[in-house]
Design brief:
Helix content is 51%, strand content 6%. The chain is mainly alpha-helical and 391 residues long.
């Protein structure tokens, strides 16, 4: 069969999506083998590409006898493209790690930058162009100087009318000129989100970090060593999960479905103290988003999350009903390939509605959501005033 055309505006299948598509898709990701038609497999291809899962799907379908040869070929071609991109991403990781190590700045790769080496048989199965690196509080400026000295440059990604937001952010992005063609960006963070959103004690987080090679062997299942060097740190497994809770809240569940595969593999590979996860979610006011995140990972992607953990994280009945009205836990919706678990397309298109209807209820309690809402509004107001005065 010919290669699949991934232009959404031309493919008539995209107007016929229904919830069965995503049920089949998540079943395949769990290693099951549903009986699918050629049209179903075309839809699986679109879903995989939209969620950066082509490389992972290639590994899954290699164990299945029911996959059309043309579909295997499509996944293989996608995977080979990802392998090339991953080579450049690895070089960028290495350059950034060497720069921070030379400057004696502690650092911990987070999210996909680390997961691709520790959780997946091949790094290209977990693609991503952002290389996220956490540094201790107060080290952002030093990290920037180290990257500049190594040839990195500021991406200048903030618009002119968001200068206050830029100065008060917890993350900054940099790019190396040798890697610009790959689109690889290094993002330095000194927190999981804006400080006013979730109350995380990062000094405690850093005291609990460990060398990557103490958490897991320096090589993954197929012998690919991570490129960060022997002194690179990582969060503890419990802190990794809490970080992913807050990351989902930051992106309002609009990130790739790949993040839920990450959680399933973290739970499989690392020994997790669930009592500690619950305690840290409570201390960071992230139990509501933690409940949704783990419930999706369990029900839609087969993560081995104990039921009593979900019960411990479960928010109040009113908050839970509201959140589950907006965010589907199983199956995740297929109304739009890039909506993630959001139930409503219109919500993914309107940032103001997202913040009002979803961002605040994802923070536990009532005082902290009010503080965050007010604080964020003040930052945006200062953005407007400063931009107006600069004209």
């Amino acid at each position: 069969m010919p290669n699949v055309n991934c232009d959404e505006t031309q493919d008539p299948l995209l107007s016929k999506r229904n919830s069965n598509n995503i049920v089949q898709f998540t079943a395949i990701l769990q290693g099951k083998q549903p009986q699918l038609t050629q049209a179903d497999w075309l839809e699986m291809t679109f879903l995989a590409r939209a969620n950066n899962l082509s490389g992972y799907m290639l590994d899954v379908v290699a164990r299945s006898k029911n996959v059309p040869e043309g579909i295997r070929k499509n996944f293989l071609e996608d995977h080979l493209t990802l392998v090339g991109t991953d080579i450049l991403a690895e070089k960028t990781c290495r350059k950034a790690a060497e720069a921070l190590t030379a400057a004696d700045i502690p650092f911990a790769p987070i999210k996909g930058a680390l997961f691709r080496y520790l959780l997946y048989p091949e790094p290209s199965m977990r693609p991503g162009v952002d290389i996220d690196i956490l540094v201790p509080p107060g080290k952002m400026r030093e990290a920037e100087k180290a990257l500049f000295a190594a040839g990195f440059g500021d991406t200048q990604g903030w618009p002119e009318d968001r200068r206050v937001s830029e100065r008060t952010t917890y993350e900054k992005a940099y790019v190396h000129p040798d890697m610009r063609i790959s689109g690889c960006i290094v993002e330095i963070h000194d927190g999981y989100s804006r400080e006013m959103r979730y109350p995380v004690d990062y000094r405690d987080v850093w005291q609990r970090t460990m060398r990557i090679d103490d958490l897991a062997p320096g090589e993954n299942a197929k012998g690919t060593a991570h490129p960060f060097g022997p002194e690179a740190r990582t969060l503890s497994p419990e802190d990794i999960l809490v970080h992913l809770f807050i990351h989902n809240a930051k992106h309002l569940f609009l990130s790739s479905l790949l993040s839920f595969i990450d959680i399933r593999l973290i739970v499989e590979r690392f020994r997790t103290d669930w009592d500690v996860v619950v305690e840290r979610a409570r201390s960071t006011l992230s139990t509501a988003v933690g409940y949704l995140t783990l419930k999706i990972a369990k029900e839609a992607f087969g993560a081995d999350v104990p039921q009593e953990v979900l019960a411990a994280l479960k928010p109040s009945a009113l908050r839970r009903k509201w959140l589950e009205f907006l965010v589907s836990t199983s199956p995740v919706p297929s109304r739009n390939h890039r909506d993630g678990p959001l139930r409503f397309f219109w919500l993914s298109e309107n940032l103001a509605l997202q913040q009002a209807l979803l961002a605040l209820p994802l923070i536990d309690g009532f005082v902290q959501p009010a503080r965050f809402g007010l604080g964020y509004a003040l930052v945006r107001a200062r953005d407007i005033v400063e931009h107006w005065m600069a004209k």
